[in-house]
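Reviewers asked in the last cycle whether our approach scales beyond single polypeptides. To address this, we selected a multi-component target totalling 308 residues and predicted its structure end to end. The input consisted of the following lines:
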Amino acid sequence: MTTRLYTHPVFLEHLTPPGHPERPDRLRAIERVLDDEAFSALDRVEAPEGDEATILYAHPEDFVGRVRAAIPESGIVSIDADTSASPKSWQAAVTAIDAANAAVDDVFEGRAANVFVAARPPGHHAEKATAMGFCLFNTAAIAARYAQEKHLAERVAIVDWDVHHGNGTQDIFWDDPSVLYCSTHQMPLYPGTGAKSETGAGNIVNAPLAPSTGSDTFRDAFLSRVLPSIDAFQPDLIIISAGFDAHHRDPLAAINLTEDDFDWATGQLMERAGRHSGNRLVSLLEGGYDLQGLAFSVAAHVGRLMKG
Ligand SMILES: [Zn+2]
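The resulting structure, written as structure tokens, was:
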């Protein structure tokens, strides 16, 4: 078994206004770096069509209807100040969910050692009934609930190392102790949530990082807060909300990680997945807005996943 990679051409067709950081070129940069011979053993699969109704695992029907109604027939419309939709955005968002759910199937049914989903739009800012922060639906949250519904997972851990706090994932699981949500993120920074004091039903673990810090504070947060929480929770599946905007080159934040830190964090979570989760590990792309920082970080992350 090897690492599986899900992509789909429609992910390039979710369009944002000129100059917007969350742009199709992000995926082109990832495609280019993973084209290298070092990744020839990757099991590359086009995201399959799934069951659209799984969106309702994390979002109420009237909200889903509002997002669908907002999709334009041409051009680009604003959903909020920094979130937009184009004609193919619905299909892109749904296909991202289909890919994440398929990745969950793969690790539960033994088709892959682990899986990376290179999709956009991202998801972790989407709250139960609010699309925001470049996100329409919360892909990671839906995939966690899908693992519980379809594969009877009792406990799912979502680890979010995107530099922004995943307010949406926290909102969706705020009173649901069957899902552990652990986040490292810069604070203060958009969206403003993610204080240590926000603990939900005891299942929310926030590890805010001060601006201008780097590897040491990130690894300390992982070792002192994230990993012990996973050990205590003993998840049946680990999902990574894998944003790479804590890289030092990223224009949207001021945390100074390098690709080595993403390699290290990936290894730590693989070790925990081996210890608690039958190695079941699914990684979903979130942010990362410097094309070189993103590409090198994804290469380090996927390279580590492939080492098994
Ligand atoms: Zn981010």
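Helices lie at 25-34, 61-70, 89-108, 139-151, 167-172, 215-233, 259-276, 291-306. We regard this as preliminary and will revisit it once experimental data from Aim 1 are available.
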